[in-house]
Write a structure and sequence with these properties.
- The protein has helices at 40-60, 76-89, 114-121, 145-158, 195-206, 221-225, 240-248, 255-259, 278-281, 293-307, 316-320, 325-331, 334-346, 384-398, 417-434, 439-454, 463-485, 512-525, 542-557, 561-565, 592-602, 622-639, and strands spanning 34-37, 65-69, 96-100, 102-105, 133-134, 164-168, 189-192, 215-218, 230-234, 265-270, 374-379, 402-407, 492-494, 529-533, 568-572, 586-590, 647-654.
- By secondary structure, the chain is α/β, with parallel strands linked by helices.
- The chain has 4 domains: 41-280, Rossmann fold, CATH 3.40.50; 292-346, no CATH class; 374-416 and 462-654, Rossmann fold; 418-449.
- Strands 1-10-9-6-2-3-5 form a 7-stranded parallel beta sheet, sandwiched between helices.
- Helix 1 (40-60) packs across helix 2 and helix 21 (592-602) runs antiparallel to helix 22 (622-639).
- The chain is globular.
Length: 658
């Protein structure tokens, strides 16, 4: 089974020569070496190979190697690959001296930590001697922190310095816990966490922002810069802005400006993290282009935004002044390019996302027939469908299509304990009124409330009971939202895919069991259209995992007649990011009333409002993000000279691999 098909989605409009360089011409704006890979998996494999080679080279001369590592979701694939090489290829870690880059402070007893993350994801699975593992202590008294930091620096110096430094670039641009303007001379020290760092720690380790300590003890930039080799990584579209700042940013006295001075550093990124780099996003500025429809659309949209003109007002001089002479030579005039791009964008707009029956569909994004269509909407969590495509969801129902919604995970870890307390208290009141003799429920409710309210460790209180209640809260909210949009509960399916049901932030790897559940559902339903979440910036990676599961299932089914002859797959975004305009293939406009209806449907998910644990680095609530993104898409269409809509939901078609 193909388990990483989501990484192939952007291949279509990025020619490989832009990221697999044959010469240095395309990188003239980049201040440090960058390697771009097709996928996170490929990058992790290459980095693992480099680490393994360095370890083995030292083993041949019977010398140790000092490696510094850190916690974080983006490094898990590298650690998994190192574990695989250890088990399958016999890589020994006996000569490795391991340093933890940072630790959170102050840590409470039994709290998660950076080091516990490293133990569970790497250390416990390899044969590194415990005496060769060094970590900062997040539980020491504050009075001895300074001496503790000095001792850590002395240990690093005693082993001959760090030979190999493995760094993750954060979404906010931090290195370790060194903030944006950390001094170049900073050594190991205590720092206070800023809000982006707290949210990233919440997403990867602590589960809720209230559980994140206020500070961390971290190696400083001076310590990092003294490492003999630095390998830095950034994966995913949410890291693109930080990658651009590090590689091409011009702001002085930042982490980026210091890193580019290291003599042996390389930044390893996947194509999603690279999309803001000039050679990827605006290749016409640095090299000869392989022009296609999407690249032309991107170039013209960029030109319109830069000089603040709609498409049809661009002139030959505008093209000449902005490095787009190639397009003039190909199409003879600005007008010919303008009208081509204008019509291309105009044809993406449709008020009939399921296809308009009995009409010419030559220039429409959706086919007129069959009508009505059987439509399956896959939602990673029990609210992504409404947040991202609630207006289209409602439109499909109103236009008499046969709509089904499939919630892939329970979403149970994203419900606060306070919500469980509120509902259990309600259940207990109802029990007293209608079933007062039910002693089993009385004992169960009492134990859960004492556990959640007072932290009492009580025999018989199973965390699974609490997760069950949290999952049912989300189910009922999802059903309420669907009902509000006009969909009956018998067309809603909750799959509770096994990979998600760990009760923790960290999930299990994808399995054939997960994919098999989707295969069985698709065979049962045989939909004409499938909508899936293509929003891969979810901080826990659940969206990507759910997308990979659906795409793997579809890939397994592609020989079946119902799928080959008729079915199309549309990808939506909205909870975490939006499609770039050069990618949009179907744009569904929403009226003010439809946008208000969508908001009201989102508000049915009460547990995901202000108190939701996983809002990410975006301060806005989900309904606010959704409306802002939908309005921004509509505004961009207006600025380009197209119709002025209140809001637009955007979609991209996924093409089956043959």
């Amino acid at each position: 089974m193909k388990l990483d098909l989501s990484s192939k989605i952007i291949l279509e409009h990025i020619p490989s020569r832009y990221y697999q360089l044959q010469n240095e011409f395309e990188t003239r704006q980049e201040k440090l070496p960058v390697k771009i890979y097709e996928s996170e998996k490929e990058a992790s494999s290459q980095i693992c190979t480099e680490i393994a080679k360095a370890i083995r080279e030292r083993q041949t001369i019977n010398e140790p190697i000092a490696i510094a590592v850190q916690s974080g979701n983006s490094l898990q694939t590298i650690y998994q690959e190192l574990i695989r090489v250890h088990r399958e290829e016999g890589l020994s870690f006996q000569n490795v001296i391991l340093f933890n880059l940072y630790e959170y402070y102050p840590l409470q007893p039994h709290s998660n930590s950076s080091f516990s993350f490293l133990k569970s994801t790497l250390i416990d699975h390899i044969n590194i001697p415990s005496r060769q593992i060094y970590t900062l202590n997040g539980r020491i008294n504050k009075e001895v922190i300074l001496s503790h930091c000095l001792q850590y620096e002395e240990i690093i110096a005693r082993v001959g310095g760090i030979d190999f430094m493995l760094l993750g670039l954060s979404e906010s641009g931090n290195i370790g816990i060194n903030m944006l303007r950390s001094g170049i001379n900073s050594s190991t020290r205590l720092v206070m966490l800023d809000m982006p760092s707290k949210k990233e720690a919440s997403d990867s380790i602590f589960g809720a922002i209230n559980n994140v300590p206020i500070g961390a003890i971290t190696m400083g930039l001076s310590t990092i810069m003294q490492a003999k080799r630095i390998v830095m990584i950034a994966f995913g579209g949410e890291k693109a802005s930080s990658v651009y700042d590090v590689v091409e940013g011009n702001e002085p006295d930042t982490i980026a400006s210091h890193l580019c001075n290291h003599l042996n550093i390389c930044l390893h990124i996947d194509r999603r993290a690279a999309h803001q780099l000039t050679r990827i996003s605006r290749p016409w500025l640095v090299t000869h282009c392989e022009w296609n429809d999407k690249l032309i659309r991107r170039a013209i949209v960029h030109l319109c935004q830069k000089i603040d003109k709609p498409i049809l007002k661009l002139t030959n001089k505008d093209y000449q002044d902005n490095h787009l002479e190639e397009l003039l030579s190909i199409y003879n005039s600005a007008y010919n390019v303008n009208i081509r791009v204008f019509n291309d964008l105009q044809h993406t707009i449709t008020g009939w996302p399921g296809g308009k029956p009995n009409t010419d569909d030559t220039n429409r994004p959706e086919k007129a027939f069959p009508y009505p269509k059987k439509i399956a909407i896959f939602s990673p969590h029990p609210d992504d469908d409404i947040i991202s495509m609630g207006g289209t969801f409602r439109r499909l129902i109103e236009q008499n299509h046969d709509v089904y919604v499939v919630y892939e995970t329970s979403g149970n870890i994203a419900v606060n304990d306070e919500d469980v307390i509120r509902y259990i208290s309600l259940f207990e009141n109802i029990r007293q009124r209608y079933d007062s003799t039910n002693a089993i429920l009385k004992v169960k409710y009492d134990k859960i409330l004492r556990f959640l309210l007072h932290g009492e460790e009580i025999d018989g209180v199973d965390i699974l009971d609490i997760l069950f209640v949290k999952a049912r809260i989300r189910r009922q909210e999802a059903i309420a939202a669907c009902r509000y949009l006009g969909l009956s509960a018998n067309k809603v399916r909750f799959l509770d895919l096994p990979f998600y049901e760990t009760g923790e932030i960290r999930k299990n790897p994808l399995s054939e069991k997960d994919i098999g559940i989707i295969i069985d559902y698709l065979r049962e339903l045989q939909p004409d259209r499938i909508f899936v979440a293509g929003d891969l910036a979810d901080p826990h990676g659940t969206h990507k995992m759910c997308l990979d599961i659906v795409l793997a299932a579809v890939d397994e089914l592609k020989g079946e007649k119902w799928l080959n002859n008729n079915c199309r797959i549309w990808m939506y975004r909205g909870a975490w990011q939006e499609w770039r305009i050069e990618d949009i293939e179907m744009a569904v406009p929403l009226s003010p009333e439809e946008l208000r209806t969508k908001r009201n449907a989102i508000l049915r998910h009460q547990s995901q409002m202000e108190s939701a644990p996983f809002l990410g680095n975006d301060e806005r609530l989900f309904w606010q993000r959704s409306e802002d993104r939908n309005r921004a898409t509509a505004e961009l269409y207006r600025q380009l000279g197209l119709a002025n809509y209140e809001a637009i939901e955007a979609f991209v078609e996924y093409k089956l691999l043959r």
